[in-house]
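Reminder: ligand-aware prediction takes two inputs, not one.
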Amino acid sequence: MKPIAPDRLPALLRLMPKAELHIHIEGSLEPELIFALAQRNGLSLPYADVQALRRAYAFSNLQSFLDIYYAGASVLVQEQDFYDMARAYLRRAAADNVLHTEIFFDPQTHTARGVAMDSVINGLHRACVDARAQTGISASLILCFLRHLSEQDAFATLEQALPLRDKFIGVGLDSSELGHPPENFSRVFARCRELGLRLVAHAGEEGPPSYIWSALDVLKVERIDHGVRCVQDALLMQRLARDRIPLTVCPLSNHRLGVCASLAEHKLGQLLDAGIVATVNSDDPAYFGGYLNDNLVQTFAATGLRAEHAYSLSHNSFEASFIAASEKRGFQDKLQDLFETFP
Ligand code: ADE
Ligand code: ZN
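Here is what comes back for the chain with adenine:
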């Protein structure tokens, strides 16, 4: 790899082709859109204006964030609301040179309020189709089960979503982690596996390394979302590296939720240097102060990562994605070209 001066790194990071694999679409809802949708749907919010809402985004841990995140999502009512939210994210992602994205959505947050599953999935899916036609970005959807609810509720959600099976590629597990281990969802994940759905789960964000082990060995997931607490378990790090199990890491989220004390102390470099297929992602960009390129540029500046790490992160993002091998190679060739020609 030819040397790239440190002051050129931000430009390189922004220009790199990349895949985003850990983005909660409800976490892309910007305060301005929250207020616009509340007005469209005749709902009132407990905040005077956009600035007052933004001031409430001071989180101490995952739960303090989730409380505000679920309240924000309550303005989503009609199919068009889901469409507008996803279209805005996809535009923003394309501007960051995201070529492919796998988008999480939390249907239970909406169906519990009486919103139809069809409105959620059809609105999001239509946005993905239109974005592909208009900007070329490729996007697929991953349905997440809320782990603070029961496995029975997850099964009912799966049943409601199955008529729309061709509009999502997989399932995930998110929400409050502590006290809700992956193994609570073993049967519903086994069923999803039989159905040919791709499997991922949040584990090792606030929860212990044992949750990462059980996501792998009980749920049989193919990727771990966050997973940063694996650094507390040397054997687990070896397992992740050996089996090339990707981690979808979200540095700005980890900092804002107190998973790491400062961005400078983030373990991304340690994960990459241990040979783990780590990727960088935005998680909930409207709440954590940045989209994908902001995560990359700020983390590199704070931790001193170098051009070879940038290359690995882009390469890993395609490797870790659920696209066909030929498409992965096509995107990775673009990365190679950029590194060869970058001034
Ligand atoms: N839902 C949205 N963001 C999340 C996160 N960081 N962890 C768990 N569940 C989430
Ligand atoms: Zn997440």
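The CA atoms of residues 171 and 226 lie 16 Å apart. The first strand starts at residue 18 and ends at 24. We will return to this case in the review session.
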